[in-house]
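Thread title: Can someone regenerate the structure for this chain?

I was given the following input by a collaborator and told the matching structure tokens would be attached. They weren't. Posting the sequence so someone can regenerate them.
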Amino acid sequence: MCGIAGYIDFLKHTPASTIQDMIQTLDHRGPDGKGVECYNEEEATIGLGHSRLSIIDISTDGDQPMKYKTFTIVFNGEIYNYKEIRLELEELGHKFVSNTDTEVILHSFEQWSTDFVARLIGMFVIVIYDKSTKRVFLFRDRAGVKPIYYYWHNNLFLFASELKALIEHSAFIREIDTNVLPLFFDFGYIPAPYSIFKHTLKVEPGMFLILDLIRKELSYHRYWDINSHYRANKFTFKYEEAKERLLDLLKSSFNYRMVADVPVGIFLSGGYDSSAVTAVLQKDRTEKLKTFTIGFEEGINEVPFARDVAKYLGTDHIEYICTMSEAQQIIPDLPYFYDEPFADSSAIPTILVSKVARNIVKVALSSDAGDELFCGYTHYQKFDRVLHLLNKLPIHLNFILSPILSSLSYVTPIKKPEIKQKLKCVSKALHSNKLQQAANLYKLSCNLPQFYQTKLFSANYDKYPTKYDNDFTGFNNIPEIMMAIDYEMYLQNDILTKVDRASMSVSLEGREPFVDHRLAEFAARLPLEYKYNELGGKRILKDIVHDNIPRELVDRPKAGFSLPIYNWLTNDLSFLLDEYLSEKSIKESGFFKAKFVSQQVELFKGNKFYYKPLIWKLLMFQMWYFRWMK
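Best answer:
Regenerated them for you:
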């Protein structure tokens, strides 16, 4: 795991020292070494920088930028199957001088050009400059585990693992793209390909870019897409065979994530996903795996559950009970760690457990994506049932009910805007076709309630389209549409972003055992009944876990990291509301109606406010604004 940055300046105004400044901002991502390479070509000046966290071949042989023939690479991530690819290349006549996955990438690119990326199993952002063709190639992994931003404006192309490195370039224009503001208040994050700034985008997962220096052209290419696998024919083998095949894939994926020349640990919550990872990996090992759990004085505490699972599996288990003061002290740093407005409060415990783990290991396995792959979220089943009932209604009844529900959404008391939103969702769903209504209803359920959309913003901002607006023709059922949306939206932009920035803030490499494209492709083609039945979601995964761990140790409602954020904001942290959500501060940022925000804050403080997520999102935006825009 590392940090990368670079510039391609067609006007040749960028001093060579700039790349040093850019890469220095990423020191937390790679404190083990820095490297830069600069070129003064006829078409442009080029700077490539790398900040290294040594994980595989920790010798200086792995230093970057790395050169091979006409290619220069900077690379962030890990290629888990690099040894197999290396053997294939050696059989084709390639010679290697190191034991790094970086060198394997360079030789793979020479051998197979851009098609090499289809061979990779891993998490990565790869940037290769080919001096012979005067082209820069930028690849991002299939799920978006590793982040990459790019800026393309006024004959200047910048790229970096984090926005803070782009901001370091003197020509970077810090202008907020107001069309992403409604998206942030819908989701609590800014979804790819967008970013908070104009002229700045994220490379979408499963894509690569080519910048042609001679033509000054940037082209976009997709090499992987989860949706095509949901549209493919479902597997026809029996359930028990599906279990065996899935277990083999899990073993392969999980063991690949253990490849390292430094100590590796596992975040263990005691739930199904982290227990599956721990059980599969510990079963075939004599040495005790290190597992980590964090608990809190208040809120949901998973420590006892994780302790029971760790004891049963025989891991070397480390627990840490965090004080509320420790958790609260993280909040002022969130805008710096995340660079963009980001409102998932579970970032706080994720940062804290990363700190605990980093004292002992250099790599930690998280256990995200099980819900998105195996129909784990309960709302998948709830939506499916509601839409199933709606589809049973006679057509003439749909036309009668729809306007009635729509009218009710306008007369429902203002203090319950979320009820108004639900009525509107059902009303619109009655007018949708069977497949699209799932996406439409799901999108509406995630949106900021219409009441706040009309009252909150100081201007009318357009809203960019997202993955909710995809065409879902060819999908088989409603839960699969929702899983596909969440894989591309929530998993990538919230969960994976949260874990990457949290772990990297303390120079810990976070790995995702469930985020393997082979697992995603397999899960997408499983019949829905293998994932979801009358007992709930994750059927096939739970059955595999039950074969390894007693059911009573893991069979409990999903919890996750939960902190009493809203209680804090009315007590110990109320000063944050007074500082950042005051009329003065709101007017200074200029994006919201100050009087309306003040009214909502007063309702919140008096415990009369029913849509509390809005307060946290406002606070996170304002804290970000005063950290990065002032």
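Residues 2-224 form a domain with the Glutamine Phosphoribosylpyrophosphate, subunit 1, domain 1 fold (CATH 3.60.20.10).
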